[in-house]
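In response to reviewer comment 3 from the previous cycle, which asked for concrete evidence that the modeling workflow produces usable outputs, we include below a single protein chain processed end to end. The sequence was submitted unchanged, and the resulting structure tokens are shown without manual editing.
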Amino acid sequence: MGDQRFPKCLKCEAGPLVPLSDYGREGASIRYKAWVCVNPDCGFNIRIDNGDISFGKSVEQSFK
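The workflow returned the following structure tokens.
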């Protein structure tokens, strides 16, 4: 990943927030759809869903 630095999680202050990307309904790339704390005890996240910003929802693995 090189020398990239990510912002510190403001909830737990222990883990960094890392960006996650996804694909839209029609296959268009969505860069930085979510930012997630990598601290497994924290799980804080910020997401964009259909233009709405949400945070704090539980993060779960997708089986698609």
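Strands lie at 17-23, 29-37, 45-49, 52-55. We consider this sufficient to address the reviewer's concern, and the full set will be provided in the supplementary archive.
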